[in-house]
Amino acid sequence: MSTTSIPGYTYGTSEVATSPLTLQDLELLKQTVLFGTEDQQYLRTAGEVLADQIEDVLDVWYGFVASHPHLLYYFTDGKGNVNSDYLAAVRKRFGQWILDTCNRPYDQQWLNYQQEIGLRHERAKKNKTDGVGSVPIIDYRYIAALIYPITATMKPFLAKKGHSAEEVEKMHQAWFKAVVLSVVLWSLPYVKEGDF
Amino acid sequence: MSTTSIPGYTYGTSEVATSPLTLQDLELLKQTVLFGTEDQQYLRTAGEVLADQIEDVLDVWYGFVASHPHLLYYFTDGKGNVNSDYLAAVRKRFGQWILDTCNRPYDQQWLNYQQEIGLRHERAKKNKTDGVGSVPIIDYRYIAALIYPITATMKPFLAKKGHSAEEVEKMHQAWFKAVVLSVVLWSLPYVKEGDF
User: Fold this and answer.
1) Which residue of A has its CA nearest to B177?
2) Are A123 and A137 within 8 A, CB to CB?
3) Which chain A residues are Cβ-neighbours of B71 within 8 angstroms?
4) What is the pTM of this model?
5) Which parts of chain B have pLDDT scores under 70?
6) Measured distance CA(B3)–CA(A34) in Å, rounded
7) Across A56-130, where does the E strand assignment appear?
8) How many angstroms separate the Cα of A177 from the Cα of each of A43, A87, A168, A171, B152?
9) B146 at A interface, C-beta within 8 A
């Protein structure tokens, strides 16, 4: 996958934040969402299934955001003006996130990048990557709530390449676990000191 | 449902915290998890299906917690001693939570009780309801991560009363949405001022 063409996508570079969490912390979180080696394998398969459908998935997700003013708000200046360049820049990284979630090993580098993503949603780093003057934070409540649509809308795409119902279900469950895991990690910058 | 016999279950009373959120906030969250009137109806059906299976569901959930020391930890004194009275007291309210999630209208009273539940997990009110000397907080990360097992383990129970696969799936999706909604609301006391 070509990633050098995505502005602001800094995975694995020295620009990425360092997660305060360890691989042991991650292991316990994986146990809590029942994420095992079989899930890793099904995510790899999902990565193959989704590779040429990323734009279609993003069309669904962006359509959802665009049709809900309380979500589209986070891409505005707070006065009703949507920044379409910002939407487009985030879209590329969002697509890459789908592939990374399926294909990357969940190691310290991955953990660090989840911290980076969290910071970019919270006020610590929002708008900075793209140099935009949008509202200062994506409120926590919607990041967590998006677990549902980001999970549920994926299933039809996983079913589009002729896998059995059982295989689709296993890919989907692995995706669900990975989304919960990701959102938990993105939440870290939002949570009070000592409460995470 | 008889609730007067559950110590610490204060739903609808003046002892319950007041949520800082409004019904309009709740409406936007419901939109974000795609929760509609059909989901409400399927939750009512789920409530009927689950009514005589609550102890079986709790056996699965408590078995999961008991088999993971990093989760069981939150019912200990922090020195490895599990408080079984505390586990038992929470269990009754946890069972009632399943029924309330299915049967209660999601109104201001419900919103307030989600705030109360959040406070009882965070350091603000943990241990106080049961007057126990357990560790001071259930860390945010596991409350959010439990979205997966609390959702996934419910499906077989929803399928046990002869409903069609489609009805079971609709009950399960409604349950998934309700769990995400609940966990978002429980997170409020954990999130930094202004970030929720």
Assistant:
1) A148
2) yes
3) 32
4) 0.97
5) 1-4
6) 33
7) none
8) 10, 26, 14, 10, 10
9) yes
